[in-house]
Amino acid sequence: MSTELELKYGCNPNQKPSRIYINKGSLPIKVLNGKPGYINFLDAFNGWQLVKELKEATGMPAATSFKHVSPAGAAVGEPLNDVLNQIFFTDDKELSPLACAYARARGADRMSSFGDWISLSDKCDLSTAKLIAKEVSDGVISPDYDADALELLKTKRKGGYNIVRMDKDYTPEPIETKQVYGIYFEQGRNELKIDRDMIANIVTANKNLPESAIRDLIISLITLKYTQSNSVCYAYNGQAIGIGAGQQSRIHCTRLAGSKADNFFLRQHPKVLSLPFIDNIARTNRDNAIDVYISSDYEDVIGKDVWSLNFKVQPKPLTAEEKKAYLSTINGVSLGSDAFFPFSDNIDRAAKSGVKYIAQPGGSIRDDLVIEACNKYDIAMAFTGIRLFHH
């Protein structure tokens, strides 16, 4: 294994030269196919850390779908029910646990996952490779690949699909360094272990945290650890369902992540499940059509030729009243925040998306108001005492 790998260019084509390298030992990766780029490796290494920690924390295979150095989705390998199989478009109903994890990670926010980088905690099997083969993505990193899975993945993108093998035993240096504008920044790596002990300090009247909520809060917090801050993550049933990344205000994170969580649930609405798509519709066209149908833009495109081509017959709108009624039935969602909530408006917004469990650092001068809002909605909230900024 080499100490460096030359890349085509950096973040943009004008940024040359570009390479990844290591000062001690050898690079812990081997490129098995393709030519990954600068952003590919940023996504790969952040995603690998995320799934490695999810596997260690839950004992389950994990996957994440990364775009521009933040996850679009992350999940563990809980089995899929019939509805999830339908909204994730997984034709194979006998999926391996790792394949279930990737289906969930990819399916959380299919619009954002378009052209993603995939990170897998476990050896990539054929079941997972078959799912990856159907989706538009830039590449995958995994500790290893079954021979038939590798053979299939090598056929993607006319043989140019990026496939990277990661040394699962690699341990990075405890001090990390980066350079900005010719100036070096140095800090200790964030080796914080996220587990159930972190959410033991429940500060609300409701102190009930079922095992499913503990799992989902752990998923949310580990996801936030590798999401560009400010960030908020909604999680449900073993997966992130809405991630608000890189916003300057906490409430905008909560709103953005909440709208994505709402879309995740609305895709399970009977009207959406029964949309009359034309036969053999392209996956991207179908995903775009569902997103527009759920949004408030749908009535603006009804009857327009390009839009109508997606359907055998024009579907009736999903009204605002129908959306509100459907979302009012959602409950048991978990939410994590990478820093404290400065105002209770975040709780008001979270409650609209069925949030019942929250984990956040605490420490705001308005903690009492935030706790009061949680008590109003009968939400159980834990103070972790730990901030999870990532930049």
Question: Strand order across the biggest sheet?
Answer: 3-8-7-6-4-5
Low-confidence stretches: none
DSSP strand tally: 15
The N- and C-terminal alpha carbons lie at a distance of: 29 Å
What does the largest sheet look like? 6 strands, mixed
Radius of gyration: 21 Å
**DSSP summary: helix tally:** 15
Sequence of secondary-structure elements: EEEHEEHHHEHEHEEEHEEHHHHHHEHEHE
SS-derived structural category? alpha/beta
In percent terms, what proportion of residues is strand? 15-25%
Mean pLDDT: 94
Q: Please bin the fraction of helical residues.
A: 25-40%
Net shape? globular
Mind explaining what this structure looks like?
It is a single chain. By secondary structure, this protein is α/β, with parallel strands linked by helices. The chain has helices at residues 38-58, 82-88, 97-107, 110-113, 126-134, 147-153, 211-225, 250-266, 270-273, 283-294, 298-301, 305-308, 320-327, 345-352, 367-376; strands at residues 4-7, 18-21, 29-33, 62-67, 70-76, 116-120, 137-142, 162-166, 175-180, 183-188, 231-236, 239-245, 333-337, 355-360, 380-383. Strand 11 (231-236) and strand 12 form a beta hairpin. Helix 1 runs antiparallel to helix 7, helix 3 (97-107) packs parallel to helix 5 (126-134) and helix 8 packs parallel to helix 14. The longest helix has 21 residues, at 38-58.
